[in-house]
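User: Here's a structure from my thesis project, written as C-alpha cells. My advisor, Dr. K., wants to see whether a designed sequence matches the one we expressed. Can you design one independently, without my sequence as a hint?
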C-alpha cells in the first residue's frame, strides 16, 4: 500500500511513534519488551499495533522490525503465569484486513523501515 500523507496516516504515525517510545521507555511495558527480546534477540525496533485490555490480562500485537508480528498475552496480576505468544509473518497476516487496519500496518512498516536505516 502506498502512503499518501493523509490525516489518517498522520494520526497513526503519531500514535505508533508514541507506542514505540512507551514500549522502550515505560516501566509498565518491561515484561512485554522482555518477551519480544527473548523471542527475537536481534530485534531493532517494534511498534504496538493493537492492544486489547481484558479483565485479567493484556493482549498486545507488535510489529517487530519489518517482517513479523508477535501477539503477547500477559496476566496483569501474576508475573509467574507464562505469557502466551503467537508469531505471524506480516505478509500472511494482512490479507483480509480492513482498509484502516491496512493503513495502520503500512504506516508502522514505514516507520520500522526508517528505524532500520539509522
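Assistant: Designed independently from the structure alone:
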Amino acid at each position: 500500500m502506498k502512503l499518501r500523507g493523509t490525516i489518517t496516516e498522520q494520526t497513526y504515525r503519531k500514535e505508533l511513534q508514541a507506542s514505540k517510545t512507551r514500549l522502550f521507555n515505560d516501566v509498565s511495558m518491561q515484561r512485554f519488551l522482555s518477551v519480544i527480546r527473548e523471542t527475537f534477540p536481534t530485534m531493532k525496533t517494534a511498534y504496538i499495533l493493537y492492544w486489547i485490555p481484558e479483565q485479567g490480562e493484556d493482549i498486545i500485537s507488535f510489529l517487530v522490525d519489518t517482517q513479523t508480528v508477535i501477539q503477547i498475552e500477559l496476566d496483569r496480576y501474576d508475573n509467574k503465569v507464562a505469557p502466551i505468544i503467537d508469531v505471524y509473518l506480516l505478509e500472511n497476516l494482512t490479507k483480509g484486513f480492513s482498509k484502516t487496519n491496512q493503513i495502520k500496518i503500512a504506516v508502522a512498516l514505514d516507520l520500522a523501515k526508517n528505524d532500520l536505516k539509522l
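When you compare it with your expressed construct, this may help: Residues 44 and 110 are 14 Å apart (CA to CA).
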